[in-house]
Design a protein that fits this description.
Number of strands: 3
Strand order of the largest sheet: 1-2-3
Mean pLDDT: 85
Number of helices: 0
Structural class: mainly beta
Distance between the termini: 53 Å
Low-confidence stretches: 1-5
Radius of gyration: 19 Å
Helix content: under 10%
Largest sheet: 3 strands, antiparallel
Shape: rod-shaped
Length: about 60
C-alpha cells in the first residue's frame, strides 16, 4: 500500500472493510407535499485495528408552491 499511514505506520487510514446501507420512504399525501424518512447505517474497520459505526435517521418535509 502506498500513501499516508497513521501514527507509527499503524495503517489507520486504510479500510479493511466498509459497509453502508440506506433505506427511505417517501409519501405524497397531496400533490404539493412530499414527506419522508431515511435511515442509514455504516461501519468500517481499518488495517490498524480501529473500527466504528454510524446510525442516522433523517426526516424531510417539502411543500411545493
Amino acid at each position: 500500500l502506498l500513501g499516508v499511514t497513521g501514527p507509527a505506520g499503524e495503517g489507520n487510514f486504510y479500510n479493511k472493510y466498509e459497509t453502508l446501507a440506506l433505506a427511505n420512504l417517501i409519501w405524497s399525501p397531496v400533490p404539493f407535499v412530499d414527506t419522508g424518512f431515511e435511515f442509514f447505517y455504516g461501519n468500517r474497520g481499518t488495517l490498524g485495528g480501529k473500527f466504528g459505526q454510524a446510525l442516522g435517521l433523517d426526516y424531510t418535509f417539502v411543500m411545493k408552491f
